[in-house]
Amino acid sequence: MTLHPPRNTPSAAAGNWQLPAGRALALEPRRPGRLHVARGAVWATLHGPLSGQPDRSQDLMLQAGDSLALRRGDRLVMEPLQRGEPAWFRWDPAPVPVRVPAAQALGEPWAQLRAAGGLAGHALVALAAGLVRVALTAARPAAASPPVAGCGSVHG
């Protein structure tokens, strides 16, 4: 069976696939994900189980806007529910967690901390110098003003 990519129709949004009328499709995900019905309706038969988990076998009717979470190892067979009408669906695989080595994860924060520490050190030195200047200025006695010429005392 051939799936048809979206056509330029208002009902066929980007990323959706058309399931033609009278056709069935089996999904067997290799990793978890979510099936979304974008338009129309589908009759779906879900078969499980994963080893060590309960059987999830069931028949479902999914309408436009419905979604179904599937696990690795599930098998879902679906076909359009309405005779003569295709259905549109989208499959979104679950994101795969990415492991970042501890050294790489800590590298940037460590560099930022070192830079901040350097700036804090410079600020402390400037603050200390300012405090010393203030203390020295406050400790000096006020210098007496020299007398101004021609302004002596008048006795008379």
Task: Give structural notes.
- This is DUF2917 domain-containing protein.
- It comes from Ramlibacter aquaticus.
- InterPro entries: DUF2917.
- Pfam families: DUF2917.
- The radius of gyration is 39 Å and the shape is rod-shaped.
- The strands form 2 sheets. Strands 1-8-3-6 form a 4-stranded antiparallel sheet, with no helix packed on it.
- It has a domain at 17-93: Jelly Rolls, CATH 2.60.120.10.
- With 156 residues, the protein is α+β, with helices and mostly antiparallel strands.
- 11% of the residues are buried.
- Helices cover 24% and strands 28% of the residues.
- Spatial arrangement of strands, main beta sheet: 1-8-3-6
How many helices? The count is: 1
CATH structural class of the domain at 17-93: Mainly Beta
Structural class: alpha+beta
Strand content: 25-35%
Percent helix: 10-25%
* CATH architecture title of the domain at 17-93: Sandwich
Low-confidence stretches: none
Q: Could you report the average pLDDT, rounded to the nearest whole number?
A: 82
- CATH topology term of the domain at 17-93: Jelly Rolls
Shape: rod-shaped
Overall strand count? 8
Radius of gyration: 39 Å
Outline the biggest β-sheet. Answer: 4 strands, antiparallel
**N/C terminus separation:** 128 Å
Question: Could you name the CATH homologous superfamily of the domain at 17-93?
Answer: Jelly Rolls
Q: N-to-C SSE series?
A: EEEEEEEEH
